[in-house]
Amino acid sequence: MRAITVTEPGGPQQLQWSEVPTPSPAEGEVLVKTIAVGVNRADLLQRQGHYPPPRGISDVMGLEATGTVAELGKGVTGMSVGDEVVCLLAGGAYAEYFVVPTGQCIAVPQGVDVVTAAGLVEVAATVVSNMDGVGLEAGETLLVHGGAGGIGTFAIQYAKALGCRVLTTAGSKAKLEHCRAMGADVAIDYHDDWVAAVKEATDGQGADVILDVMGAKYLELNVDALATAGRLVIIGMQGGVKGTLNIGKLLSKRALVTATSLRFRPVEEKVAICQRVAEVVWPMIADGRIKPAPETRIPLKEARRAHEQLAGGENIGKIILVA
């Protein structure tokens, strides 16, 4: 089979369309023929050498995909060759075939094109697991950074479906308009004093929960923007990995700072998260409460172009590679 490989860590030019061995499914796994692959910023980090896969996982990139089951591993029941599935992976999807534990495969959501579905499961699993983890509730205020991306587009709609008020940041007029169209109550240009804007929008209280993709760059600012007993959830490192934190301010607010990675969780945890997505999110998509993000489709073998577009910072919604 062919796959996107990385000759050595670096820029998009390091991505190559190469011949590699077709993987074989282990016990409890299936081999899937790829239909489409969602592109995530984690892929860019891996290409640069900053986010290697867990031990024993393919070094081919790709954390979410759709495809048809091509082969069953030993002991697999409840699935058949030819089934269309949406898959959450620890790696390996930038390829014509990939292997995945059966519990990390769920049905394509009702009414959604199988290519579009490839860009849904990673964002849904990330947002739902993290909002469950910090107990986001109806009536609370959620601040979402990067509201125009795949994560942000989903998080805005999911929080609104839960009955929350949503504030978001983005960096251009088009992106701010997109956030409002997705349901954001307040959309803030991050080039401005967004902490002050959050305070103003919440009558000085701050956000109950912040979903952050920036990491170090926003650490202290996020704590400033938190409400008393607020919860900061860090899921990305676009703004660096090392920051400073005023512990006194954190103590005075009785606030929580947590950071999570979906990729390195044990299989059983990812299986439970996938089932949660199928049970909670897929019905929201079927009845229109959540709409898929705008998408750009690019051939899988042109993954270099996809990485360049995502890194450029102008993309709205999701980039999907089509096999």
Automatic annotation (TrEMBL):
It comes from the Bacteria. Residues 1-23 are annotated as: Disordered. Pfam families: ADH_N, ADH_zinc_N. The keyword Oxidoreductase applies. The keyword Lipid metabolism does not apply. Keywords: NADP, Oxidoreductase. Residues 10-321 form the Enoyl reductase (ER) domain. One of its GO terms (molecular function) is NADPH binding. Its EC number is 1.6.5.5. It is an enzyme of class 1 (oxidoreductase). This is Quinone oxidoreductase.
